[in-house]
Amino acid sequence: MIFLKRQLPLIITFVMGVAFAVQYYIPHPVSEEAITRVSKWMQIISGFALALGLTSLFHVHAVKVKRRVPGWGYSVILYLAMLATVVVGLFWSKGETRVDGAQTAFGWIYDYTMVPLQATMFSILAFFIASAAYRAFRARSREAGVLLVAAVIVMMGRVPLGQFLLPWSWDIAQWLLNVINSAVRRAILIGVSMGAVALSLKIILGYERAYLGGGSDQ
What we know:
- The chain contains seven helices and two strands.
- The protein is mostly helical and about 220 residues long.
């Protein structure tokens, strides 16, 4: 039983991790066919994972409704919205947003419910970004001062009012975004990639076992 719970997942992870890594460097028809089959199995497993996630979501909100925790009314709204969307999408619209150029009921729900909700969420997110920027751009040091000046120039150069007041801000903003920002972004991406490689090696070699539910075993 311990072997099935602890060692077997590690063996499967090691074998599949090495196979995926080796296949990338061996473009042979046999390896390509194998990776295609594995990819199809991954899609099937992803479908089951999605079903498991939906079940977990329903369970969490069912507990909130049952216990009448603060905000449980939003859980009821979530239930109704999800069920209505599924019923309309599967039985009335067959998963299509438009049929012969005409908008379906499912398309109406998406265009007039999901899109406005997404716009509202990102609009609210803008205030959080502004608040975080205000705290981050306080000129408490030379580095923070440089960041503040660069941020002001970029913001002025990206809006019509700023370009009208400071015509030169557009050229400087483009230079900051295309040269300085690109170099920093590439450095960050290189660091993230190296971290992903290191984490992948730890998982393949069995040093990282958090996905087993018992934390990392060194």
